[in-house]
Amino acid sequence: MLNTRFLSAVSLSWSKPSARIVTRGASGVRCFSVTAGHIVSSESTVPSEGLLALLAAEDKLDRGLVGLLGAAAAKRGIPPEHLLIEEKLIHPAEVVGALERLATAQFRAAMMGEGQAAAATGAVGRGTIRLHLGALLLEQFRALPSDVIRHYLGGASGALKLHAGEDTLGALRLQPAELRAARQAEVLLSDAQNDRAVRLGGALLALGLATWHP
User: Which domain of life is it from (predicted)?
Assistant: First the structure.
C-alpha cells in the first residue's frame, strides 16, 4: 500500500524552494531535506536504515563492526561516514553514492510504510547529496505492481490526463516509452497493455502533474 500522506508531502515539497518532509510511524521517524526539488539530506531513526547497516548489507563493511562504529560515532557526536573515512573503511569518493543509496532506501520505506507525514517549508541547510525528487518518485513507481497503482487511484478504469511541460519531463529522466506516453496527454487505465504508462501517470499524479478522471 502507498502512503498517500507521504505522497502529498512530496508533492508539496518538490515545488518549493526548500522544505522538510517528516514521516512518523511505528518503526520510527524519517526526515528528508529538500532544496530546489532535490533531496539534499536524509535521516532515519529506524535501526536498519542507517549507513553502517546499509554498507554491511552490501557486504562493504563487516557486520561485527556496525554496533561498535555506531556507538563510537554517537559518543563523539559525528556522522558515521566521518568515522568510516577516519578509519579508512570507506573512500571519501564513495560516501556520496552510499548516502544517496541510503536516502533512496529510506524514501522507498516511507512511501510504502504506514504513519503520518507532513511537509514544512523553510530553510533546510546545506546537504551532502542531490537526488531529484520527481525522478526518485518515478523510479519507485516503476517498480510497483499495476494493481497497487490502481488501488492508489481508487478505480480500475478511467483516464489519467497529463499536463507536464517538456522541461519537467526532461528533469524526470523518462525512458523512451514513458516519454511517448507522456506526450499523448492521456493514459487509459483500462488498457492492460499500458502498464508502463499507468505507472508513469500514477507518479505524475502524485507530483501534481496529472489529474485522474474515473
Answer: Bacteria
* This prediction's pTM: 0.91
Contact criterion met (CB below 8 Å) for 19 and 32: no
User: Does residue 125 have a pLDDT over 70?
Assistant: no
Q: Which of 174, 42, 176 is nearest to 111 (CA)?
A: 42
Residue 135 sits at φ, ψ, to 5 deg, of: -65, -35
Q: What is the pLDDT of residues 178-193, one digit of tens each?
A: 888 777 777 777 655 5
Distance between CA 51 and CA 17 in Å, rounded?
A: 27
Cα–Cα distance list, 204 to 33, 70, 153, 178 (Å): 21, 38, 12, 11
Where are any strands of DSSP class E within the chain? 18-25, 28-35, 38-44, 116-121, 131-132, 159-162, 186-188, 210-213
73 vs 121 pLDDT, higher one: 73
Pairwise CA distance, residues 40 & 42, whole Å: 7
Give the closest residue to 41 by CA, choosing from 86, 1, 92, 79: 79
Q: Which pairing describes strands 38-44 and 131-132: parallel, antiparallel, or unpaired? A: antiparallel
First to last CA, the chain: 20
Inter-residue contact 81 to 168 (CB < 8 Å): no
**pLDDT of res. 28:** 94
